[in-house]
Amino acid sequence: MSAPAVSATRCRYFADGRWRDSAARETLPVHDPATGAEIAQVPLCLPAEVDAVVAAARAAFPAWRKVPAVVRARYLFKYRDLLERHKDELARLITREHGKAFEDARGSVQRGLEVVEFACGIPSQLLGETLEDIAPGIDSHTLRQPIGVCVGITPFNFPAMVPLWMLPLAIACGNTFIFKPSEKVPLTATRLVELLAETGLPAGVVGLVHGTAPQVEQLIDHPQVAAVSIVGSTAAASAVYARAAARGKRVQALGGAKNHMVVMPDADLDAVVESVMSSAFGSSGQRCMAGSVAVAVDPIGDEFVRRLRARAASMRIGPGDQAGVEMGPLINAAQRDRVRAYLDIGVTERARLVLDGRERDVPRDGFFVGASIFDHVEPTMRVAREEIFGPVLSVIRAGSLADAIAVVNRSAMGNGASIFTRDGGAARQFTSEVEAGMVGVNIGVPVPMAFFSFSGWKGSFFGDLHVHGKDGVRFYTEVKVVTSRFA
Ligand code: NAD
Prior knowledge:
With 487 residues, the protein is of the alpha/beta class. It contains 16 helices and 24 strands.
C-alpha cells in the first residue's frame, strides 16, 4: 500500500509508482478561495527530485511502448470508470481549491473524462497507411510510434479537464508522461494521479512534479524529455514555446485569450443574454473560452446592455459549494485585486462602467468580485485588448457585421469567437472571415469536444499540432514510412 499523496497538508510528488515527500524547504500555500483559508502546502520540488521523476519515466518507456495499444487502452477503460465513480468527489475538490460552482466543476470533469473515452479508442487512431506496388515488387506502409517522455504543464482554471486533455492520449499512444500541475490547484491533480495509479498502470508511466517556472525549465532542458505541452497565460506559453523549440523539442503551447461575441440585431435576445451571462461570468470569467468582449451591432446595443445588466446585477454570488450559486470567487487575492484595478483602468479610459462588481455585497473573507459591465468601449482601450481573466465584460458598439468582424480580427488573440444571429448568411460570413480557431454560432462557449482539437489561433497558441482529437494523436506520435522488397 503506497503512502497517501497528501501528507497532512503538504502535497507529495509521484516518481516510479510511489508518492514521495519532497525535501524542498520552499513551499507555496494553497487557498480555499471562498474563505481565504490555507488548505495545503505545495513544495517546489528540488532538481534531484525532478531528475528522479524523469529517470523513472525514461526507464518505463521501452516496456510501455511495447505494450499492445489494445492493452494500453484497457488501463484507460479502467481509468474512465474510476473517474466516473469519483466525479462528484473530484468536482468537490475543484470547488474547494479553485472556487468554481460545483455544477460547473462537475461539467469540467465530464469534459476531461470524454478525452479519456477518446483515448480508449486509440488502436483505431494509430492505424497507418499502406500502398502496395509503389514500384514493381516494392510496398510501403506507415507506422505511428510514440516519442518518449512527454511533459504536461497546466493552469489553475481547469484543475482536472486540462490535464486530461494531455495525459490520457500521451500514454495511450505509448509515451510516458510527467505532469506539472498548477501550483495553485495541486490537490485535484494529485487525486487524478492517485486514481490513475489504481488502474495498475506500470510504475514510471506517469510521474508528477510540483513547482513553478524553474521546475518547468528543468524539465524542458532535460535531454530525456521529448515533448512539452503547456496551457497557461500567453507569457508562460510563449516562454515555454521558445525554450522548448530552441532545444529541438516538440511543443504545443496554449496561451491566453480575449474572446469576442458578436450580437446581431436579429438575434433572439433572451437566449443571447443567457449565453453571454454564462460565457462572460461563468467560473468568474476564469476560462480561456470566456467571452470577454461583446460586439453589439446597431441598433441592438441599448436593449442588449439593459437586459444583460439587469440579469448580471442579480446573479447569485457565493461559495461554489452552496446550492444555486452562479458565480464563485476568483482564484486568489492577487487576481481579485487585479480585476478591481482593471475596473479603474476602464473608467480612466472613459469606458462607461454600467455595472460595478465592487459594489456587490460579497462574503468578506473570500476572493470575490461581482459581475461588471463596461459599455461604449473602444477597441483600442486596454479593457478591450488585455486578458483580465475575471467577471468583466466589455461591450463595443459596431455599425455593421463587417465592422464587428473587423473589431474581432484586430485582437492579438484568437482562441474563440461567437456570433448570435438567425441569419444564415451572416453566420456564414462570420465563420468564414473571423480570425479565431474555435467559432460558435448561437453558442457562447464553443469548446470542441474530445474528438475534435482545441484549436486556438494567433497569440492564443504557439505550435502547429493542437491538443486532443486527431492533432493530439499526431502530437504524441512520430510517423515512420517503411518501404520494403522481398522478391
Ligand atoms: P500561468 O501562465 O500563470 O501558469 C500556467 C502554468 O505554467 C503553471 O503550471 C505555472 O506553474 C507554469 N508557468 C508559469 N510561468 C511560467 C514560465 N515563465 N515558464 C514556465 N512555466 C511557467 O497561468 P494560470 O494563471 O495558471 O492560468 C490562467 C491562464 O491560462 C489564462 O491566461 C488562460 O487564458 C490560460 N488558459 C488557456 C487555455 C487555452 O486553451 N488556451 C486554457 C486554460 C487556461
